[in-house]
Amino acid sequence: xxxxxxxxxxxxxxxxxxxxxxxxxxxxxxxxxxxxxxxxxxxxxxxxxxxxxxxxxxxxxxxxxxxxxxxxxxxxxxxxxxxxxxxxxxxxxxxxxxxxxxxxxxxxxxxxxxxxxxxxxxxxxxxxxxxxxxxxxxxxxxxxxxxxxxxxxxxxxxxxxxxxxxxxxxxxxxxxxxxxxxxxxxxxxxxxxxxxxxxxxxxxxxxxxxxxxxxxxxxxxxxxxxxxxxxxxxxxxxxxxxxxxxxxxxxxxxxxxxxxxxxxxxxxxxxxxxxxxxxxxxxxxxxxxxxxxxxxxxxxxxxxxxxxxxxxxxxxxxxxxxxxxxxxxxxxxxxxxxxxxxxxxxxxxxxxxxxxxxxxxxxxxxxxxxxxxxxxxxxxxxxxxxxxxxxxxxxxxxxxxxxxxxxxxxxxxxxxxxxxxxxxxxxxxxxxxxxxxxxxxxxxxxxxxxxxxxxxxxxxxxxxxxxxxxxxxxxxxxxxxxxxxxxxxxxxxxxxxxxxxxxxxxxxxxxxxxxxxxxxxxxxxxxxxxxxxxxxxxxxxxxxxxxxxxxxxxxxxxxxxxxxxxxxxxxxxxxxxxxxxxxxxxxxxxxxxxxxxxxxxxxxxxxxxxxxxxxxxxxxxxxxxxxxxxxxxxxxxxxxxx
Length: 642
Ligand code: MIC
Ligand code: SF4
Hints:
Layout: H1 5-13, E1 14-17, E2 24-27, E3 31-34, H2 36-49, E4 58-62, H3 72-88, E5 91-93, H4 100-107, E6 114-117, E7 131-134, H5 137-144, E8 149-152, E9 155-162, H6 171-182, E10 190-195, H7 204-212, E11 221-223, H8 228-236, E12 256-261, E13 268-270, E14 278-280, E15 291-294, H9 302-312, E16 322-325, H10 330-339, H11 341-347, E17 351-352, E18 372-375, E19 391-394, H12 397-406, E20 435-436, H13 441-444, E21 468-475, H14 482-485, H15 499-502, H16 514-521, E22 524-527, H17 540-547, E23 550-555, H18 560-568, E24 572-576, E25 590-593, H19 596-602, E26 604-609, E27 612-617, H20 622-630, H21 633-641
Parallel strand pairs: 3-4, 3-6, 4-5, 6-7, 9-10, 9-12, 10-11, 15-16, 15-18, 16-17, 18-19, 21-22, 22-23, 23-24
Antiparallel strand pairs: 1-2, 2-8, 5-20, 13-14, 21-25, 24-27, 25-26, 26-27
Helix pairs in contact: 2-3, 2-5, 6-7, 9-11, 9-12, 20-21
The protein binds alpha-methylisocitric acid and iron/sulfur cluster.
C-alpha cells in the first residue's frame, strides 16, 4: 500500500512510537519557530532544561505579536528573547520584520522538513510542503533541545481540488469552504492533505492561506505537495537549493476524500463569532461596515497586498469605514513601496500599520462599539478584536476592499470589473538584515541574557495525586476557545512572561470572578463542553489555571494543542464517558476522583459528585502518564535527563 504525503514525512522523521492511527508517534523536528507572546515562556522553559545550544537544523525567534510598547514590559521581553536567542543558537527576527508565519514561508521553510512552532498557525508552512505543527512553548523548548515531538497519529483527509478559481474568488474562499464543510471540530485528529489537478493553479502564498486556516478546523496539520510552483517560489526567494519535489504515492490511502471544484466556488464570508459560520458574501449584501482590516498571517503576502492595492488604486475608502493594511513582512512592505502599490493603498485613505499581527490579536485598531469589522484574518471569536460587542466577519482581501469602497458588505464581483491582473515577481527583494544570526558556540558564553522585572519564573507543576477532591469552580459550554480561557489583547498580552499577573485575567470573558474564586478554593476542577480549548497554542491557557490551582478539566472533548498543554502543565484532561452527564454537574459542587493511577492505566475513572457516580474516560500514553505523575513536562524532562 502506498503512502500519502503526510505519512511519508512522518515515516522519515519517526524516532519512536508507531504510525498506527491514534497511537503516539514521536517525531524528529528539523526546525522550530517561536513568536514573542509565547516565546518568553518557551525560552524560560528552555533555560530551565539546562541545555546550552539548540540541536535543531534551524530555530528562529520572531517578534510580531507584542509590538505595541505601551510600557516597559514588551520591550523587556523583546530584549530577553533577542539575548537568549543569541546565546543559545537561535536566529532572531527583529520587531517590524514581519509575522512569523509569513517570514518563515519566505525565508526558511523547506519542503519535506518538520517544523513546530509555539503558535497554532505554524502549519502555514505546509503551503511549501513542510509538515508543520502548532505546539505549546514547552514542546517547542524540548524540540529545540533535540527532543522528539509527540503527536497522536492522525488520520489523513485528502481534499481533491479540480478546476481553477474564477476572478475575485480566492484561496481564502477555499479556506472558508472547507470550514463550512468540516466545521471548527472537523479537523481534530486529522491532517488535511491537499491534492488534485487544481493544486497547480495555486501559488505558494495562496496555498499558505489555505494551510494557515487548517488551524481553524482543529487539524493537526495541513499540507500541499511540493511541485514546480514551489520551485518557482523558492527560486524567486533565492532559495532554489531548498527545493525537493514531494507527492503522495499514486495508490496512497486516505480516511476520506473531499472534492472541491475551484471553478464552482464564490466569495464567502464567516459571520460572528466562529470561523465556520460561513455564508456567501452576496447573502449579506447591504450590511453596513464600520471597519475593514487587511493583513494577518492568513492574508498578508505580497500577492494579497498587490490585489488589494490594485482594487484600491484611484478609488477612496467610504467615509464611514476605517480601514487598515498591515503587510505580512518587511519584504512585502518594501516591495509594495518599490512598485508604487503602497501609494495606491495610502491614497485610498487606508491606514498603514506595522508588519505584525496587530488588530488580529487585539493589539490596537479595535473596532468601535457594536461595530461591524470585516477582516482578512482567521479568527472572529467574541471579544478577540478588543471590542466586546463588535461583530467580526472573515473575508478575502478582494471582498474586504470591495466592502471598504462601498461601505457595506459587497461581493467583489458586483464591482463590474473584469479581473485583477496581479503577478508574483520572478525575484523577491531579499534582504535578511533584520534577521540576526546567533552567536558562535565560542562567543555564546559571553552573551548576557537580559531580563526585565516583568519576567517571572515558570510556575512549578504539581505531581498528579491518586485522589483529587476539589470544587467545580467553573462550568462552561461548547467550543470554549483559548481566547476565553486566557484572553489576549493589548491590556493582557504584556503579562505573558508573568504568569501570576496574567492569571488575574483567566476566564475573564466568561466570569470575571473566576480567578479570585479559584485562588481562594486552593484546588479546583473545571467542566467544559465539546472542543474545549480550541484556537491558539498559548500554553498560558494551561499555566494560568495551573497557577490558580486547577487540577483537572473534564469536558465532552478537547482541542489537540490545548489537551497537550494541559498535560504538559500537569493538569489532567478527562472526558465524560457519556456526554449527557455534563448536564448533571453544577458549578460550586465538590467533586472527587479517586484511584487516579489505576484509572490512568484502565482508561476509566469515576467522578463522585454528591450521590452521583459519573464515569469518565482518558487515553493517556505511558509517556503522558509519566509527565502527569512528574507534575508536568518540565519536571519530567529534568527527571529524564538526570
Ligand atoms: C492567535 O492567533 O491566537 C495567537 C495569538 O497567534 C496564538 C498564540 C498566542 O496566544 O500567543 C496562536 O494562534 O497560537
Ligand atoms: Fe498573529 Fe493573528 Fe496569525 Fe495569530 S492568527 S499569528 S495573532 S496574525
